[in-house]
Amino acid sequence: MPRRRMSVFSMSFLDVMSCGFGAVILIFLIINHESSEDAKTYNQDQLSEVRLLDYQVQQGEKDLLALREQLEETLQNLAQSQQSLASIEEDVTRNQTALAELDAISAAERESQDELSSDIEARQEELDRLKAQNEANAGNRARTVEGEGDRQYLTGLRIGGKHIVVAIDVSASMLDDTIVNVLIRRNMSDERRRAAPKWQRAIRTAEWIVAQLPLDAEFEFLTFNTETTSLLGEETGNWRPVSDARALDTAIDTLKEKVPEEGTSMIKLFEVIGQLSPLPDNVYLVTDSLPTQGEREPRRTTVSGRDRMDLFRAALRKLPKQVPLNVIMFPMEGDPQSAAAFWNVARTTGGSYISPSRDWP
User: Fold this and answer.
1) How far apart are CA 318 and CA 273, in angstroms?
2) Residue 157 neighbours by CB distance under 10 Å
3) Terminal Cα distance for the chain, rounded
4) Range with the lowest mean pLDDT among 120-129, 188-197, 227-236, 327-336?
5) Which of 65, 123, 180, 351 could form a disulfide with 346 if both were Cys (CB 3.0 to 4.6 A apart)?
6) Highest mean pLDDT: which range of 32-41, 195-204, 291-300
7) Dihedral-angle region of residue 99 (phi above 0 means left; psi in -120 to 50 means alpha; beta otherwise)
């Protein structure tokens, strides 16, 4: 019997090799599938982290923008605060300067009080004599005033005429002789402004003028600042007899209730005087400085000396030429041209000009 020949590539060997190769492929597929699943899981985790980071970046940008806006607002507030601080420092400096000047004035006034106290006894006898003389002449006057009596022999100011106008300046400058003190007193209460020494001098002067009015005359009593008004309780332009004692007393009482304020418009005063019928024989003007405005309010907050002279010349054109202007001047600091200007007008109109001492009348 012939012998069977062996072959290494028999069916059994091929089966084994096929099974092995299939096992390898199966293993490879299993391993690759697991790697893909792991990669997907890893990619999803990274994507979540990326989205979280994107959200955080966007939120951070919003927060950064809000912080920038807050920073700009803070810088603006800081700049405004610095400006306010600078303004407050300037106000403090001005107030300190004003306070120092007030302290100096107070010291000078205390020294003056000591001197005046030592002089009171020496003047008492003269005062009694003048009071007696005033009582003796009271029967010829429309109104009597307390004080040192008739000083016409000292001033040369004569009160006469059939129609007489008394005009009193009630602007803010009548509160004091210096600009600094005017600014300080202007912010005080009405009661303290009425008690200002300079304003009290103006009231006493008005009382003295009224006391000298002839009994057979007629008068108009005016006050002026930015507007001109009558103290007789009527519209301007109505003459009242001097013999009407009630009208005189009412005018003085009304004047005492006035509070000096605002600027000075002399053109309006002279317009009222020019509209009187008949025209006055004498105008007695109590003032302290040149006007600060014309018919309208000035556009600027300050008025130069040249501007004030121009306003004064414009006002004089409204004053009737044949009316004498008598000026009683309480000089004001910072207005050196006023004294010469009013003196010249008083001289050219046939009136008189006086700048009395502090204890007159």
Assistant:
1) 9
2) 20
3) 179
4) 120-129
5) 351
6) 195-204
7) alpha
Q: Which amino acid is at 208?
A: W
Q: Name the phi and psi angles at 161, rounded to 5.
A: 120, 165
Query: 35: which 2 tokens?
Result: 């790697």
Residues 6+ apart with CB under 8 A from 145: 204, 207, 208, 210, 211, 361
Locate 244 and state its tokens.
């009407």
Burial (CB count <10 Å: 0-12, 13-18, 19+), residue 219: buried
The predicted-structure confidence for 288-345, as pLDDT tens digits, reads as follows 999 988 887 777 767 788 888 999 999 999 998 889 999 999 988 878 888 899 999 9
Q: Which of 172, 212, 186 is nearest to 326 (CA)?
A: 212
Rounded CA-CA distance 120/49 in Å is 101
CA-derived radius of gyration, the chain:
49
**What is the residue-wise DSSP string for 230-294?**
ETTSS-SS--EETT-HHHHHHHHHHHHT----S---HHHHHHHHHT-SSPPSEEEEEESS--S--
Quote the distance between the C-alpha of residue 57 and its chain's center. Answer: 55
CB-count burial class (<10 Å; 0-12, 13-18, 19+) for 302:
exposed
Task: Give the mean pLDDT of 198-204.
Answer: 92
